[in-house]
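Help!! Second protein's tokens look totally different from the first
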Amino acid sequence: MISIYNPDYPGPVYCQPCFWSDKWDPLQYGKEYEPNRLFFDQFKEVRFRTPKIALAGFRRVNSEYTNQAQDLKNCYMIVASDQSEDYLYGNWNAKSKFCCDCYAVEECELLYESLNCKSCYKGSYLEHCESCSDSYFLYDCRGCNNCFGCVGLRNKSYYWFNQPISKEEYKKRFNEILWTKDNINKFRAELRNLEQVHPHKYYQGRQIVSSSGDYMENVKNSRQVFNARHTEDISYSQDAWRVKNGLDLTEVAFNEMDYELEGVGYSSHNIGCSKTWNTSQSYYTDNCFSCDYIFGGVSLHKKKYCILNRQYSNEEYDSLKTQIIEQMHSSKEWGEFLPASISSFAYNESLAQDYFPLTKENALKHGFRWYDRPTRDYKATKQHNEITGTIDEVADDISKQIVSCKTQDDTNLKKDYLSCATAFRITPAEFQFYKKMKLPIPDKCFPCRLQDRLGLRNPRKLWPRKCMCDYKIYPNTAKHAHHPEGACLNEFETSYSLDRPEIIYCESCYNSEVV
């Protein structure tokens, strides 16, 4: 059984068929509330003795190796995704197919190593792009096709590193490319250099109103939100899509009127819930599905009026709920999220390690648990540096090989890539994808590739800055209406720190140059 819970997890974990079966009752693991004890201590008892589902998801066809996902077909190693097909290695993806190694792509097809893209088709190494096709190594481009190595273009065709060329010349250059890892790294480095001399908008995204944060789309009246799409009136939240009226949210979708949630979807009017779906009017739940009026519930399904996994009548529930909330106010537990000390996961097993990485020493210093993963002794049958050249030079038996991960070659890299699998396989579907896209076999395992991909995104932190537009740092192509000369006076909060090399513009100056 594959599970998100490590082998040392102290509680029972069920596979999906067993978890959803009628052969067990989560109420048998409940307890009576004790008013003389802290609520979180009592919740911990129920949390660790009630069976958990190994991997959560709904309506998945041939997609067993996925978590917190639904409506998938032929997907492998993806999380927090929905309505996708033939998708390999990724997270926060929606309505996409035939993609591999992507992050936060929506309505896309045939993409590789791309992030924060929408409505793109057939491309590799795209970042923050929309409605682009047959393009490669793009950054912040929209409506482009047949473009290569470009930054900040709009509705262009046949551009090569931001220079227009003829259709014939473009095809000639493109067909001459040898898609080896060395050449790909060279193109990516050239793109990074081009990024440094073009202005960047102070946030990634579009259509925001009275909001702050980064990676936002169609966001209104929201403060300090990251990876947010179609949200309104939320604050201090991350990975929030289609959410209204919420505060302190992480990994939520299709929610309304919620506070302090993690991994919750299609729910409303909840507080302090974790990994809960289709639930409303509930408090401090874990692994609950299609429930209402739950307080301190674990692994409940289609239940109402339960407290600490014990069934009550409507009247009994209301009375005891009021008592517990009063006592939680006194103990200062009420309104706080479930403490890290009773988490089902150690710090380095959680997404916190992806976005706010800590060493073991620092994690323990801050009171977090740390999971010492058993030493992995995979015997590589093929060294990564033995797989050179193009995909056409790779033998068909590559899917039977165990390939070493590049990060294991260097002591310092080992320290940087703490989640490294040390070795990996290429699945048959993955191999066919690389052949179709004419891409070389990767030299890193999936966790290391994910770490590199997340490293391309700005940190989830904001700094106060001024617009850098002054007609000197960058040769503007037009006079900006709000400051036709001299320096722009606009100020903002941005995820670009003061020591970053990029040219950071306010939205007005950026639009004058790019849109």
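Here's the second one for comparison:
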Amino acid sequence: MERNCARTRIAKQGAASMFRMNDHADEGKSSIRLALRVGFWVAAIAVLAFLPAIGCDFVNMDDNRNFLSNEALKYPLEQKLVWAWTTRWLGVYQPLAWLLIFFEHAAWALRPCGYHVVSLALHGMIGVALFVVTRMLLERALAGTAEQKDPFVVVAAGLAAMLFCVHPLRTEVVVWLSAQPYLPSVLCLILGVGAYLKAFDANRALESRRKWLTASFLLGGAAMLFKAVAVTYPLLLLVLDAYPLGRLTPTQGESGARRRWTLALAEKLPLLVLSLMLMVVAHGAKNHPRFETGDPISAPLSARLADAAHAVWFYPSKTLVPIGLTIVYPRAETSVVHLTEPSFALCAAGVVAMCLLAWLLRRKLPAFASAWAAYLIILAPNSGLVRFSPQLAADRYSYAASLPWVAVLAAGLLYALKRRTSIRITSVAMVGVVALGLCTMSWFQCATWRHSVALWNHALDVGSDRSLEAHGNLALALKQVGFETEAFEQYQAAVRVAPRSSKACYYLADELARQGKNEAAIATMREAVQNAPDQAMMHYYLARFLTRLGQPDQALAPFREAIRLDPGFCEAHRDLGVLLAVQGQNDEARYHLETALQIRPNDPEARSSLEQFLVAQENRHRHEQQPPTIPAALPSPKVSSQVPAGNATFASPTLMDRSCTKR
């Protein structure tokens, strides 16, 4: 009897254990199905929010130089690979981004629709990756509690990722094709963070941990090589070590804390070295003395700190109130600001106060402290601490910098979803209304990018009337579609807002010359030189105008002055060499042409000019050494309708002649 009872108990326990296993399996399958559904809808809504981008064209803000007139797109494959890993085209180093563009060009040629499809696909993938990593962060923060596997964690992570993806502040990165490299960079950054979190899962074997760490480091390196916005990736991993991983928490006093920090830094040494190298390369790529406005790039520390403090609050304010979004945010009056100005002093005080608050709350609210630190770290390269743009801010810089706040938003949504039913329904309804409103705003924002005229008209409408880029690029776009009068007005406006800009003065003078007002064109360039006598580019443009308008003798002095101000000015050496060759000053011409090629060995015009000069010299030398030949009999001249002998001397056009008209 007792034996039968024992058998019955064992059978019941086995059945109960089997049911529990089945319940866990069912819960696991249900959780996976829920995650798949949420991930699908996040990607779908992220793409839908920017679907009008498919109909947008290239715009004349870098797209023309990156795509339409980029000769590298026509190179053979081997030359493309070398160019991608060595070029610093337009002042950026992004080798993996160029490889992606080469693949796109092979598939789509110069049809913008194909490039936009790739951007939308990448944006949708970012939405899914962000949802997965946000869920991982929430589960890690809730480790050891019954809420860790709560379905509301999945829903909260999905809603937060969706709100990030549909925000109109993402428009610039998704729709502007020259900003496309931000997308694969951010995708690799998010995936790298996810791999890093997986590496330190509880009870993970050492070999598996090494594989996940290797994947995280490779993804982080790829993110940096796609775009330098990710160069602070190693520091971001240190923030994760502090929270939620808790790898830096001391266990044996102060010495234990130092040891943990040392090991964490040593572990990331390869990434830190790559990050430092890319910072040096990026700084060298943008190492120009002046902006296109003519203002100096260098600025005192006070000005750079003021820029950074303003940027810290600019993007959260645009996130909360996304109105007036545009491609350029020009400074109000001057290119240099200081912390003593009230608005910038207030921003700086707010940053200091938030840092102190985050430090004081690092134990009670570690998620907030970590998010604030990660936000500052990701934003730092584009905050203005290192100046490389005359703008105060740019929408594209918020794409990566805003990522840490997604996890904070998800935590807030999770808290609301776990309340009573009425609060839960209200929260979901509010998220739906906000998402619908943001999607609508994103659709309208996409419409401003449909072509260059719409883009720059919108920029001027929302307050960028002090922007050289807005007036100058609108002028070029209007001229391209035949609105000559309106274009001329924008050229004049560009010179008014940036009188020290060599490019603005050149385009205005060029338009005056096209109208036949040669004296006015030359006077415009001479006035520009007087306004900025220390700019080599001003003297260079004046020399080009004088050469083009039939005054080559007067062009020699400004060419030489441009070279005196900037001895490494390749174009000035090249064009002066061409002009001297035309005038017969061959020794000096050869010196300048060879100098131009030494400064820029890969410049095709410098190489072609020198080669044609040497060929012309060789032909002249051979002709001078050849003895004259006298024909046996001369035909009797016919005077009827032939050209008179005195007018029968012609000179065939050469590169030298062509370069003296217009380059």
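Reply: Different proteins will give different token patterns, so don't panic. The chain is about 70% helix and 0% strand.
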